[in-house]
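Okay, is this right?
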Amino acid sequence: MSRTDYTVNVDEFLSLNKYEVDESNAHIELVDDPSDSEFDKLIMVCPAALYKRDADGVKTFDYAGCLECGTCRIICGDTILKKWEYPGPTMGVEYRYG
C-alpha cells in the first residue's frame, strides 16, 4: 500500500546537490538567436529551471545548475542547442541524499 500523507519538497532535495562548475567550458550552449517557441518548451520542462524569461520577455540561460538529465536534448534536440555534452571529469552535479 502506498503512502499519500506526505509531500516532497523538490527544492529541498536539489539544495543538497553539489556542483563543480567548469567556468572555462560550458557543457550546454544555445544557438545565437533561439526561437521563442523552442525556448518556451525548455522553460516548461527543465527540472532545474535553467531557462527563464523576465517580465520584458528577455531570455536567460545558465548551465551552472544543470542536473545533466538530458531533458533539453530530448525536447529540442538541435533546434536551439548548439552544444550539449556531459561536463568533464570531476565537473558537474554530484547528487546527495539526506
About this structure: The chain has three helices and six strands. The chain has a mean pLDDT of 83.
